[in-house]
Design goal:
Length: 510
Amino acid sequence: MEFWTSLASLMGVFAFFQSILHAVFPLELRFAAVKIFHRVFCCFSTYCYFDITEMDGVNTNELYHAVQLYLSRSASIAASRLSLSRGLNSSAFTFGLTNNDRLVDTFRGAIATWEHAVTQRQSQSFSWRPLPEEKRSFTLRIKKKDKAIILPAYLDHIMETANELRRRNQDRLLYTNSRGGSMESRGFPWESVPFKHPSTFETLAMDPSRKELIMADLTDFAEGKTFYEKRGRAWKRGYLLYGPPGTGKSSMIAAMANYLGYDIYDLELTEVHTNSELRKLLMKTTSKSIIVIEDIDCSLNLTNRISKKASPSADASSDLRPVGGSEDGGAGAKTITLSGLLNFTDGLWSCCGSERIFVFTTNHIEKLDPALVRSGRMDMHIHMSHCSFPALKILMTNYLGFDDREFDDKTETSDLMRELADVIDDAEMTPADVSEVLIKNRRREKEAAAGELLDVLKERVEKRKKKKPTGEEMEEEEQEKRALESTSSESDQMMDSCDGKEDKGEGEQV
């Protein structure tokens, strides 16, 4: 009882002196004293502190969310209590620090201590943009001697790592341009859906050595930021995929996107009216993306100018109209020009972004203008041919479950494999045709399904022997051979003012 009486007396004395202090020292003087004390404390402290709030005024602080994503890598191991979330269009869970939890990170030998603080925000009056009820922030504590090491290199490292993690965790998207290039409610001319195509280079039916060359080229491009910057070149690359239908051109594009983790922009040229709309679509694409124009010889009448040299209207700036479209310049005519398309892939406007890949596909390379497929626009020409025996082995592994041991000459199926190897080239079947046969027989025994495929291949060979090519078909084949041999040499000769460049050399053939 005496203890509580003494405590009450002490509290009364404390309250008396506090009232005298408030009466003698005004509020401004007390604030000044606290500020001076804080400065003295900071002078003797070996640490400095940085606050990173979630909201910068009324705008979202991008650095806060970058730090949150960056710390999620080690939060699941080091922290004792975690928050768990999954973002929109994300394929991974994100761990985060809870209120007042701490995490220690190291950068170039310096120690950085992070603390996450969550406090309730005071009730706000009427606002056009209400703020969140909770006020969240990260506090970074580092030693003063490490300040030159941490800033700004550490923050740049956090932003780069967070962007890479966000890209990896987010689902890939497939974009297509809106009809007529119209804008949606957010002013964006592209419509998107999640990209779920399962094609990879491992499952792609192609000679493994050719796939290795393409994968190495893609890797060099993705890791070539410094290379392109030092040499003053735009960080972009072009690929031309050509060959008969069903040879896997679309699967190749999907495999490229899955290999690099890029989004795909599928550009439908028949929905674009003018060159300005084409530039607008390009400006609205993001970095780390693949811009695809499939069947370009069918989308627009991009015929070789060598057949038009006698016609004064065949100028490179003449209107390029859709196949079967109006030719009289009426209201329904398109005004996309070859010059506009060339500038789209290799002009000044193509340098507005970075780390972008342009992919053109065609079934008839001889129909394309040499200026469109020269180096600098289409750097690598990839011939998607009929199914070869190395590609056939990949398909049989995918659909029937064969392994490398069963393709060995010493196995029981060696005779069957030798027959398949002998007949596959003469059959000239596309990977799509072979896949269809394997899908139909996938529930049968492997040897029986392979035997059925062998019968189909032999039947195709017999039909090809009986059917002699007509004069027109022979002429088409000859034109294509000439186009493949002379694409590079003609490109330099046929360049005119629409190119605006004098680059020489030919695209790499794969």
